[in-house]
Amino acid sequence: MESTLPPGAGRVPTADAGGRAMPLIGFGTHPMRGDLATEAVLTAFSVGYRLVDTATRYRNEDAVGAALAATGVPRSDLFVTTKMPPDRVGGERLTLEQSLAALRCDYVDLWLIHWPPGGYPGVTSWREFVRARDEGLVRAIGVSNYSVELIDALHEETGVYPAVNQVQWGPADHDPGFAEAMRRRGVVLSAHSPLRSTDLDHPVLGGIARRHGCSVRDIVLAWNLHHKVAVTVKSAHRVRMERNLSAVGIALSPADVEAIDGLSTVPTAR
């Protein structure tokens, strides 16, 4: 595989995640495993994706690592995210070492607590995350599925906010108050399931998609990017990968964004 960026790949916007430029559209690997996962990641790199998202719980870090070893894309051009499951509290360092070995990496760009351990902030784990970051084993640290209150608890105990909070986020989940709370704390909001809660047959989305000559899926991704919400998309098929990445070129109008924002079903702030 050529190490040069494919046409259009340089247009992918980024966010500052703990001092590292994090692409706002990345390739998610769940539930792919084995050779399928390796080939899908290699294809994603060839299409232009530079962020790959995996996790200990996905049981595919070795397959992602095989792709990282086989690609001609320099490691410094890639952004690798993995996650520690909440049942690994007390074994943070071992979990990270196992992830690094499977990924064949000296470091990961982003390491997340996959879920609040037992519904609590996980302060002891967070201290280990901070230590790993300070030692250079990870470039940035974050969380997944955390509320504002849980994030504040981590900061109160350690003085360190997560660089990223990965949550389910789509038009139905849109919560301006939550998004603003993340922005004020310097936390990048990332959507791990941008389409899961979305009614892809909604007439508002369909009308906007027709005006832009694209699919509703493309519109939902473009809407997230407009709000500077990072998204991970999943597909083992090259054509779909290309279509998903093309969302970076869709310019929604203020009226489009307002209409999609209005599809939120969130009654109160998180």
Give the secondary structure arrangement, pairings included.
Blueprint: E1 14-17, E2 20-23, E3 25-28, H1 34-47, E4 51-53, H2 61-70, E5 79-84, H3 92-103, E6 108-113, H4 123-134, E7 138-144, H5 148-158, E8 164-167, H6 176-184, E9 188-191, H7 203-212, H8 216-226, E10 230-233, H9 238-245, H10 254-261
Parallel strand pairs: 3-4, 3-10, 4-5, 5-6, 6-7, 7-8, 8-9, 9-10
Antiparallel strand pairs: 1-2
Helix pairs in contact: 1-2, 1-9, 2-3, 7-8
Mean pLDDT: 94
Number of helices: 10
Question: What share of the residues does DSSP label as strand, in percent?
Answer: 15-25%
SSE series: EEEHEHEHEHEHEHEHHEHH
Largest sheet: 8 strands, parallel, barrel
Principal-axes geometry comes out as: globular
**Low-pLDDT segments:** 1-5
First CA to last CA: what distance? 44 Å
Q: How many strand units?
A: 10
Q: How is the largest sheet built, in terms of strand order?
A: 3-4-5-6-7-8-9-10
Radius of gyration: 18 Å
The amount of helix comes to 25-40%
Structural class: alpha/beta
Description:
The chain is of the alpha/beta class and 270 residues long. The protein contains 10 helices and 10 strands. Strands 3-4-5-6-7-8-9-10 form an 8-stranded parallel beta barrel, surrounded by 5 helices. It has a two-stranded antiparallel sheet with strand order 1-2. The chain is globular, with a radius of gyration of 18 Å. It starts with 13 loop residues before the first strand and ends in a 9-residue tail after the last helix. The N terminus is likely disordered.
